[in-house]
Structure formats: C-alpha cells, structure tokens
C-alpha cells in the first residue's frame, strides 16, 4: 500500500464537506476519484497534498502517518499534485520548466545551459517523449503541456501523481496518447489518482474507483466489476437521462439569424456560413483549423480583416473587442474560465450581473435595479442547480464545475441572440451536463437563441447539434446536416484531407 486515507472529515465553517472518507492506493495503481461537482474531490486532494492542514483523520503514506508534514515535505516524500492549471511557465523553454528551481551551475557558479538542455533531453527521452527541450512551452500542444506537467512531477521523484481533470478540452486522439503515457509511467512503478468526469475513460484506464457522494466515500470498485450505468448511478444517486435533441428539430429548416460572408483574418480564410434562428451549429476542427478562430473572431477576441456579417437582418459591425460583440448580442463562453470567465473574489450574484449592469439592470441616475438583480441571479442559480449556500457566496469558494455554471449563467443573463459555447461542459459533472444541454435545447426552441457549439466531445456535440461545420487550414470544408451522424463519422469527415466545400452535402 502506498497511500491510505483513513476516516477523514472536513468542514468549512458550518459547511460539512467530507465525512469519514477512506481510500487506499497501491503501488503502480491508477485510482479514480469521481463525484458530482462540489462532492469534495478537490478538498480531499488538498488534504492529501497538505494544502489543507486542519482536518480530522489520518493520511498514511508508505506506512508513515504524514498528518504533520507540510506541502513541501509531502512533495519530498513523493506526493505531487498536477492541478487543472498546472504551474508551467509558458514563456520558458521545456527544459527550463523541467528543472525549474534546480538550476545546475558550472565551476564558476554560472548557470550551465549546455547541461540543462542535455539533461532535459535525456529526461524527456527516458519518459518516451521526443519534443525539443529548447521549445517554448507556449508552442507545445495542449496534450504535450499536460505530459510535461507529469514529467515535472516525476523529475521531482513523485511516487504518487494526482491528476485533476487532465483530459479536459483534449481531442480523443490526444486523450489516447496521454493515457498511453500514463500507463507507461505506471508500468515503471508510479501510482496515479485521476479525477475526471468522463466515465468511459475512468473505466478504461483505472484499476480502482472511489466515488465521492454527499461528502461520503464509496471505495474499492475494481476495473471490470462495474459498468458505466452503475457508476453513473453511484455518482449521482439516481439514473441520469441523457438529453437527445429531437431529430425533427435537427432537420428543421430555420430562418437565417447570423450570416457570415467571406470572413478572413488570422487563421481564417474566406469563411462563409449561415446560422439559423433557434439552431445549434456544431463546430469541428483541430487546433489551428479555423474552428476556434472563427468563434473567437465573431466575439471580438480575434481580428477580422475582411468580410461582412449580418445578424437578424441588421448590419453587424465587425467587433474589435468582446464589448462590441456583446452590445450586438453575440456572447462567447470561453473554455478557460480562469482567464476569461469569472472574478473569484466577487459573489455569484455579482458575477452573473456583470454583463447586464449597464443594460437590463440599469435604473435612472446610474442606480442598479437591486430587486431585478436578485431575481435574475436566483433564476439561473436554481435552473442550473449551482451548489452553494446562496447567490451571495463568493465564486472563489465554489467547486470548479459550479464556477462554470456561473460563467454560463452570466452569458445567458445578457439575453444573447447568438451564444458561442467553447467547451462549455469542461469540469461539469454528468448530471449538470444534461441540465446545461436541456437548457440550451429549451432556449433555442422557446427564445429562438442561436448557438455555435465547439467541443472535442463528439458524442455530446452530436446529441445537441442540428448541423455541423468542419474546418481545416482556416477554411470551412464541409457544412453538413446532423442526420444521424455518429462520432466515428465526425472523426472520418474531420480527417479527410482533400474535401472541397459541400462535397458531402
Ligand atoms: N475555501 C472554501 N471555503 C468554503 N467552502 C469551500 C472552500 N473550498 C471548497 N469549499 C466547498 O466545498 C465543497 C466541495 O468542493 P470541492 O472543490 O472539493 O468539490 P469537487 O468535488 O472538487 O467539485 P468539482 O467537480 O466541481 O471540481 C463545495 O461545496 C465548495 O463550495
């Protein structure tokens, strides 16, 4: 046994978060930690790693009680957490990131760069990676950045690596490649705790599963002994019904809402398409294909150099920043809520109101309509079942998934005509994901909201999208109605290199 968590309890003030939590991780084991948003997974990981030190119970590592050890001391015995936003420095090279803080010096006491790069090359090679240690980390793909985070942990002699949602926003190929890498490290003797909301990958990769529900742990489920439906029921406490947008809705011809005509700019080459009123248009493409670029450009986050856009018959002035897009009723929800989503120090209510202070909530003489503000925040708080004591709770105290629900509430409050969702269910649990999809389905049908939906989770994409746009090399290559497509079809179309626009229509 490598790690033993024994009868751990934790409360924040009067809020009880963990009650009698137990789990055991063996050597060379991949252990899953799953549960709904706010179930207490991150709190437990913070206790194991020593970030939270006021808890009841015992943490035993290699047969020693480590309750009294600090974060650094726990790292020194071999416990290393790789959070969702790991502390790699994008402007540094791969080598600098690996050796961060342990700079080798030459005989004159100068940093020995030759040695740094030689060492880094060897380290990467030992872990089966072949990227150049001189590359800036910002130029690495997302999956290679995540692998580098693990390498850093292993370089620091980690015996147990805790990965918090490592596959979010990765394509299925990138996931496979990350899994192979983790599996290879496990075979070398490293143990992993993996937090994830993707049950299929949990069942594929992990040896043992611990479910956290309502603060209690249900542990010891073994690979092969539990199926996805049973696991899903254990996590939520009831069966989860998957939302399926009706095929009738998917095939309905819709009145044009957004018309994009010959748009070019950074990473975009002469893109034209229409988005119907009440339509959900799925957007597919590898990073750099133009898929994310057009979504961000329509929201004022990327520059458009040429082209025309109309929205519900109005001339749409090319947005130079997000504010001009929002004023024209196009709103973008970013996959990166830390950078572009919420303000941690403000309350749920203040975050939700942020986009409508100068419009829907404005009264005369610069006053804010407080009653309306509370009503509006409460509406989304309830519809999206945000797990917090009230709308006055600070967003920084919420679990990751619940923060994401606040980001979506903020966007919907502004009553957009076009909503652009970029990996909107990142970090969202299996039940909340269905609630979000149901809300989108409802708003498109009842309010005529038009949606551009970008995600690497093709099963999710196909359940909600009426039509799909495929991008490559900055161009729109295929525009296809979702008439019963499968995830395999989507991958096949995306991977065909020489398709000309419309060939498959
Ligand atoms: N510093 C804090 N102060 C008050 N409450 C907190 C604090 N940190 C966490 N919580 C609460 O503890 C509960 C568990 O949060 P935690 O982040 O552990 O959940 P999680 O299972 O990791 O969720 P997710 O899947 O959304 O990441 C939540 O209700 C959260 O609001």
Quick overview of this protein structure:
The chain is an alpha/beta fold and 505 residues long. Helix content is 34%, strand content 24%. The chain has a 6-stranded mixed beta sheet with strand order 6-7-8-3-9-10, with helices on both faces.
Task: Fill in the keyword field for this structure.
binds adenosine-5'-triphosphate; globular; 505 residues; 34% helix; 18 helices; Rossmann fold; 3 domains; disordered C terminus; 6-stranded mixed beta sheet; sugar transport; alpha/beta
Helical/strand content category: alpha/beta
CA radius of gyration is 24 Å
Number of strands: 20
- What's the number of domains? 3
Give the CATH class of the largest domain. Alpha Beta
Intertermini distance:
57 Å
Contiguous low-pLDDT stretches (5 residues minimum) are: 500-505
Query: So, the CATH homologous superfamily of the largest domain?
Result: P-loop containing nucleotide triphosphate hydrolases
Number of helices: 18
Overview of the structural elements:
- There is one protein chain.
- By secondary structure, the protein is α/β, with parallel strands linked by helices.
- The protein folds into 3 domains: 3-236, Rossmann fold, CATH 3.40.50.300; 249-329 and 417-425 and 449-505, 3-Layer(aba) Sandwich (Rossmann fold), CATH 3.40.50; 336-415, no CATH class.
- Helices cover 34% and strands 24% of the residues.
- It is built from 18 helices and 20 strands.
- The strands form 4 sheets. Strands 6-7-8-3-9-10 form a 6-stranded mixed β-sheet, sandwiched between helices.
- Helix 5 (142-155) runs parallel beside helix 6 and helix 14 (370-383) packs across helix 15.
- 45% of the residues are buried.
- Residues 500-505 have low confidence and may be disordered.
- The protein binds adenosine-5'-triphosphate.
- This is Sugar ABC transporter ATP-binding protein.
């Amino acid at each position: 046994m490598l790690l033993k968590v024994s009868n751990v309890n934790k409360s924040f003030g009067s809020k009880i978060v963990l009650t009698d939590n137990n789990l055991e991780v063996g050597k060379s084991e991949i252990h899953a930690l799953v549960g709904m948003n706010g179930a207490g997974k991150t709190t437990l990981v913070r206790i194991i790693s020593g970030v939270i030190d006021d808890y009841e119970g015992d943490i035993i590592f290699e047969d020693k009680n480590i309750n009294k050890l600090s974060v650094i001391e726990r790292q020194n015995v071999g416990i290393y957490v790789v959070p969702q936003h790991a502390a790699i420095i994008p402007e540094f090279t791969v080598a600098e990131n690996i050796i961060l803080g342990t700079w080798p010096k030459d005989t004159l006491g100068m940093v020995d760069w030759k040695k740094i790069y030689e060492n880094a090359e060897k380290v990467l090679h030992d872990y089966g990676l072949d990227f150049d240690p001189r590359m800036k980390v910002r130029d690495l793909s997302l999956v290679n950045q995540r692998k580098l985070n693990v390498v850093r942990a292993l370089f620091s002699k980690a015996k147990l690596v805790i990965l918090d949602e490592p596959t979010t926003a990765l394509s299925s190929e990138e996931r496979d490649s990350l899994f192979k890498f983790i599996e290879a490290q496990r075979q070398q003797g490293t143990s992993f705790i993996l937090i994830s909301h993707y049950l299929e990958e949990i069942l594929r990769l992990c040896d043992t599963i611990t479910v956290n529900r309502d603060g209690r742990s249900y542990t010891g489920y073994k690979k092969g002994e539990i199926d996805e439906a049973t696991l899903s029921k254990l996590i939520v406490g009831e069966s989860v019904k998957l939302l399926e947008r009706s095929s009738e809705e998917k095939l309905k011809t819709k009145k044009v809402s957004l018309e994009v005509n010959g748009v070019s700019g950074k990473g975009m080459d002469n893109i034209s398409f229409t988005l119907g009123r009440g339509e959900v248009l799925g957007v597919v493409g590898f990073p750099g294909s133009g898929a994310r670029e057009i979504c961000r450009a329509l929201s004022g986050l990327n520059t458009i150099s040429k082209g025309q856009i109309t929205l519900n018959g109005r001339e749409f002035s090319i947005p130079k920043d997000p504010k001009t897009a929002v004023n024209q009723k196009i709103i973008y929800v970013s996959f990166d809520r830390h950078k572009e989503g919420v303000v941690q120090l403000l309350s749920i209510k203040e975050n939700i109101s942020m986009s409508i202070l100068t419009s829907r909530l404005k009264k005369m003489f610069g006053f804010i309509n407080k009653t309306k503000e509370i009503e509006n925040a409460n509406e989304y708080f309830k519809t999206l079942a945000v797990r917090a004591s009230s709308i006055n709770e600070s967003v920084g105290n919420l679990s990751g998934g619940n923060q994401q629900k606040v980001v979506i509430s903020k966007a919907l409050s502004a009553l957009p005509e076009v909503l652009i969702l970029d990996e909107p269910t990142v970090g969202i649990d299996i039940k909340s994901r269905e609630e979000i999809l149901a809300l989108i389905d409802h708003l498109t049908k009842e309010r005529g909201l038009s949606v551009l939906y970008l995600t690497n989770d093709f099963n999710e994409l196909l359940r909600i999208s009426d039509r799909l746009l495929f991008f490559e090399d900055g161009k729109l290559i295929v525009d296809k109605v979702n008439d019963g497509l499968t995830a395999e079809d989507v991958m096949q179309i995306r991977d065909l290199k020489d398709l000309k626009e419309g060939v498959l229509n």
